[in-house]
Amino acid sequence: MRQPRWRKLLRDGLVMAALAAFALTVVLPLVWVFVTSLKSSPEVFASPWSLPGSPRWDNYARAWREAGIGQCALNSLIVTLATLAILLPVGSMAAYIFARYPFRGSRTLFGAFLGGMTFPLFLTIVPLFFLLQALGLFDSLEGLTLVYVAYSLPFTVFVMTGFFQTLPQELVESAMIDGCGHVTAFWKVMLPLARPGLLVVGIFNAIGLWNEYPLALVLVVSDEIRTLPLGVANLMMTEHYQSDWGALFAGLVIVMGPVLAVYWAFRDRIHDTMVAGALKG
Question: Does the predicted model carry a pTM greater than 0.90?
Fold first, then answer.
C-alpha cells in the first residue's frame, strides 16, 4: 500500500529538523569559542553570549608568543607527520599480509592487533616510561614518534585489512602474469588502489595524534619539545591565574583550526570512502 504523501512529508520534515538540531549542537559551540576568543576578559564575564565590542586579535598573538603555542604547534606537526610517514607504509604492509596471505597463526596475530585497540592506555604508560628511559629516547620527539606509531598501528591494520579484502584478487594475478612479484604487485598495484583507505586512516590518525595528551604528558618533560595539547594545558593554567580568558580561548581556536580545516578539505573523500566500504561490506 502506497504511503500517503503527507505522512512522507512529515517524516522527512522530522528527520531534517533532527539533523538541523544536531548540527546546531556542533556548530554553535565552535562559533561561541571563536567569538569569545576575540573578547577581553571583562567582556567574557559581562556579556558571554554577545558579539565583541571591538575584535581583540592581539589575543592570538599573546597565545602564540607568550604561551609558546607556536613552538608547541610545530612540535605536534613534526611528530604527527613523522608518525604518519612510518605508520602508513608499515600498517599497510601488515594489513595486506593479513588480507591476502593468511598463514598459520595469522588469526591469532590479527586478534592481538585488535586487542591493542581495546587495551587500556593507562596500563601501558609506566612500562613505556621505563622502556624509553632504557633506550635513551625519553623526553624526545623521536621516542614520542615511535610510541605514537605503536599506539596507532592496531587501528591502521584493522581498517586497511578490511579495505584490502574488498579489492579483487584478479588484479594481483594479472600483475604477476605481467611479470610482477609479490612486492612489486603490492607497491605498484594494490597500494595505489588502497589510496582512499589510506587517506581516511591518515586523517583519523592525524586528528587523534594532534589531540593526544596522556602519553605526551608522561613522556615529554622539556618545555621546548612540548606538543600542542600540553601547550594548551599550560596555557589554561597560566591564563587562568592571569584572568586572560581571551588568550585562553584564542589558544583553543589555534588547536581546533587545523583539525577542522583538514576535515573540511577532505570531507567528500572521507564520505565517499565510508559509503563505498559500507556498500562493499
Answer: no
Q: Could you state, in order of their start, the residue ranges of all structural domains in the chain?
A: 68-280
pLDDT tens for 5-24 read 777 788 888 889 898 898 88
Nearest-angstrom CA–CA distance, 74 and 228: 8
CATH architecture of 68-280: Orthogonal Bundle (1.10)
CA angle 240, 246, 247 (to 5 degrees): 70
| Grid cell in block for residue 228 | 600542542
Written as nine digits, the cell of 207 is: 586528528
